[in-house]
UniProtKB/TrEMBL annotation:
PANTHER family: V-TYPE PROTON ATPASE SUBUNIT A1, VACUOLAR PROTON ATPASES. One of its GO terms (molecular function) is ATPase binding. It holds the Pfam family V_ATPase_I. This is V-type proton ATPase subunit a. Keywords: Coiled coil, Hydrogen ion transport, Ion transport, Membrane, Transmembrane, Transmembrane helix, Transport.
Amino acid sequence: MEFVDNLPPMDLMRSEKMTFVQLIIPVESAHRAISYLGELGLLQFRDLNADKSPFQRTFVNQVKRCGEMSRKLRFFKDQISKAGLGSSAQPVSQPDIELEELEIQLAEHENELIEMNSNSEKLRQSYNELLEFKMVLQKASGFLVSSKSHAVGEERELDENVYSNDDYVETASLLEQEMRPGPSNQSGLRFISGIICKSKVLRFERILFRATRGNMLFNQAPADENIMDPVSSEMVEKTVFVVFFSGEQAKTKILKICEAFGANCYPVPEDITKQRQITREVSSHLSELEATLDAGIHHRNKALTSFGFHLTKWMIMVRREKAVYDTLNMLNFDVTKKCLVGEGWCPIFAKAQIQEVLQRATFDSNSQVGIIFHVMDAVESPPTYFRTNHFTNPFQEIVDAYGIARYQEANPAVYTVITFPFLFAVMFGDWGHGICLLLGALVLIARESKLSSQKLGSFMEMLFGGRYILLLMAIFSIYCGLIYNEFFSIPYHIFGGSAYKCRDTTCSDSHTAGLVKYRDPYPFGVDPSWRGSRSELPFLNSLKMKMSILLGVAQMNLGIILSYFNARFFHSSLDIRYQFVPQMIFLNGLFGYLSLLIVIKWCTGSQADLYHVMIYMFLSPTDDLGENQLFWGQRPLQIMLLLLAIIAVPWMLFPKPFILKKLHSERFQGRTYGILGTSEMDLDVEPDSARQHHEEFNFSEVFVHQMIHSIEFVLGAVSNTASYLRLWALSLAHSELSTVFYEKVLLLAWGYDNIVIRLVGLTVFAFATAFILLMMESLSAFLHALRLHWVEFQNKFYHGDGYKFRPFSFASLADDED
């Protein structure tokens, strides 16, 4: 055991040692000190004002000002993106600007931009009205007839088309009156012309018809140009309309309906000369307005471009200032109101760096009083912090998704780096598919610097984040594919010739009577001759099923061994004696023994039925094994292992709660002071140690918890071992699916002497391989490997009830501006 204790600490095995510190910062250097700590990013502050609302805190006004500046900067960013200019990714060099000066500048720029937008909107509104008026004049003139000769022609056409329809009697009479100038004026026939959105025309016409009870004539024509909406800057399709009606009441109704539908009405004279004169005037105004609009847009874009050069730098600056004041709000004033007091967690290795940063802040702020930094003892458990890199971070994220490690407990991510991609590959094993995954992973890694600076979609971001997981999964898939001897389900003689041959030269009975072994076994992996033989499926099923059990028992044993190292690290001898030992005995007495039988059967070539051996080990342990005996002394060994497994259950259940009760009663009576907490000597050795919370001991609660834990382990030993059979099931499914696509799609298409059929078959095979085998099957294998780690492996030792170390850091500030 001394050898184990003297081993150097493994990176990532335990979280970084943390210490609880207190800062006493003079007010004049507080802002600079917090800014420097944000750049360092190794101190997590504790909120000392958690009982106060955000509006009751000291620096609430500064936070509000920063929030207002953020709003203005977001407004500028939106305006730049609407104008299609884009902010500069590389901010130009500019002398540092103070926050107060920036606030004044932003207010001026915002007022200037709002005024420009308002003027531009008014001009655009006027331009739109004139453009609509021009289009109404052009289109409405076609509906209005002033010459008598034209009226006669229209009347003849009316006689042929409209009068023949009995349903349009009133409409026809209105049109007839409109085409006869004399009588129409006397009868009071009028018209309203205007323009409306194309999407509203049908409803508009229907409402008009109902409101006037059919006593109107509605003419429409599509506008020649789309109109820009000044608010949304989108182009809108419009339709010109002319409504003929009679009577003042009808006019009031029609105008109200036009107003309700957002239709713009324009007066159109019946006289063609007046129409032409007005059209010329409108066109002249339009050209003037267009020139004014272009000049305004150019001026606005120039102003926005000048903002864009500094926008990124300003946004970073304001975001940092807001984060600094938010952090200052977590600090308290001391009694004299001249110093701010802060508390927080930092890694022990970072103490020297933090002290150096604080000294620099004192010097730069010209403070007469230095910042006091000292270590304190804390009641609560420290946060968990692992130093990861690009390679180890995605594996740590997989573990953290289940639960953050308790402070200093064994970290499953150390083993997940290898076991996760390996178990994935056991289910996905095909070196052809593995090469495809490898190429994808290498592309992501090769373009790492470029992709890391881009904004990716959710799927691509997830794929890019797990690029190293994908790389290892691909490498292990190639390895397992070589073991299974499958390249897109096709076996190859890579490592030499087969160990089997046909019984005769014709090979007529190779699929019925089978092959004959004539030399040493195939050197690496599955012999290619198993492919297509009559015993292929039973052989591969037996191989993969037994292999799954061996891998599962090995990984579960690793989990229990890690629980031993946890108990040893936390000096919990109770957990070693009454959890680790009986758990090892129970698991290996049953399933460790099954694994031993599998290995012996493989080595000896025995025909023993392992199902029979394991079932009758429980039902009839004293019966003679007969032909199922694999080695001498098997029956007494089985009886001994069964008894040990039975003894292990109460061993897990009863001693620990009663011993805890005894220890508590002794502590209560004052006979055992050594257990009560850490002494001063301990604090000198481990300044990060926390005082233990001794709550009232509840024996029934402890006993029920231990009973649940014991029952869960006993039942879990069976169910978890069976759960590892998913390795066999998914490997078989992947292999069979791959075979079906190869034989029933590619080979079937290749059997035709037609290039089109062959190309179709090849395309279907390629799509099936890419989308079903490479995407869906890889996702399925990934999720099953994830479950095996979270449930079957981690529940043996991993509590996962800690909380993450979240230091105040400018680097971790979110990029979004919400």
